[in-house]
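Before the break, one more example. Copy the sequence into your notebook; we will annotate it together after we see the structure.
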Amino acid sequence: MTVSDRGGDGETMCPHRLVLEHVTSRWGVLVLIALLERPHRFSELRREINGQGRSVSEKMLTQTLQTLERDGLVHRDARPVIPPRVDYSLTGLGREAAEQVRGLALWTQRRMADVQRARAAYDEARAARARAS
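Here is what the structure looks like once it is written out:
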């Protein structure tokens, strides 16, 4: 397996895992879902993401878009007009990934109450074991 990217911890990462991290990263998920609806200009995309109670910096959004573009998921269309216009849209590959990510995001919304109950049961059982020790 040939790998040229390294994770933040310095360990060599398998290419599959690296793409999965890009797609499921905090900002990657939001960018893909937003672009699934329609193409966006940079400022529109930032406003949409920030309008969801989050705060993505210009630098972080730029890095996320570049990473997704490099992976072949996002298309950057720079038009030579004044003022310059750059639109971002999904490629076919990106649309496929975005649909999968959106499905997972919708699942978490539907099943969050179940996850919270499971967490509470786990925490309660763990605390009971700790008290018994």
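The first helix runs from residue 15 to 24. The mean pLDDT is 90. Try to locate both features in your own notes.
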